[in-house]
Design brief:
183 residues; Alpha-Beta Plaits; isomerase; single chain; alpha+beta
């Protein structure tokens, strides 16, 4: 039986157990939070992204989650700069063209207020009185490097905060930032 761990990765944590660079207090790793031998991340979340990271000891499951050919849906809560128009959201739904080619169509919707159960981020997102922001929920079925950030920027709304809330059927529900549970 394979082991699956769901981890709510905080901002600033690398999606790996060791850091190849010189030891630095600002480069935290998974080892600070998870002391389970033999499990590895299935996919990645950038250091400046938060949320659901699935870890497993099953290489096939790891490949199924991480490989874009399998089209496993991943859902993100995205705080963006500005208030996206219907046209901007429609562009995301149809797929946008990035430097490395067009994206697959995405599912997207506005979220009224902040996502449910949202925790504070340390450090907080910079607040600017003169520039509004809002939250959207975006679901993609591929996983290019910094894809969600590049997609929102392509429609004129840079990402301020990015939280993965779902991978396939696994969700963050009830999982505090920095905590993990067996799936």
């Amino acid at each position: 039986m394979s082991r699956v761990i769901l981890f709510n990765k905080p901002w600033g944590v690398l999606s790996q157990f060791t850091d190849d660079g010189p030891p630095r207090p600002d480069r935290r790793t998974l080892a600070e939070f998870i002391d389970i031998p033999g499990v590895y991340p299935a996919g990645r979340l950038d250091r400046d992204s938060e949320g659901l990271l699935v870890l497993t000891d099953d290489g096939r499951l790891q490949a199924r989650i991480a490989n874009p050919r399998n089209k496993m849906a991943k859902t993100y809560w995205v705080q963006v700069e500005g208030l996206p128009s219907d046209a901007a959201l429609e562009a995301l739904r149809g797929g946008v063209t990035l430097k490395d080619g067009p994206t697959r169509p995405a599912k997207v919707r506005r979220i009224e207020g902040a996502p449910p159960g949202l925790w504070p981020r340390t450090p907080p997102v910079r607040f600017r009185k003169s520039v509004p922001d809002c939250w959207i929920e975006l679901t993609i079925t591929e996983g290019r490097n910094r894809q969600v950030r590049r997609m929102t920027a392509a429609v004129g709304h840079p990402t301020l905060r990015l939280i993965r809330s779902r991978v396939g059927d696994w969700t963050l529900d009830g999982l505090e930032s920095g905590a993990w549970r067996a799936a």
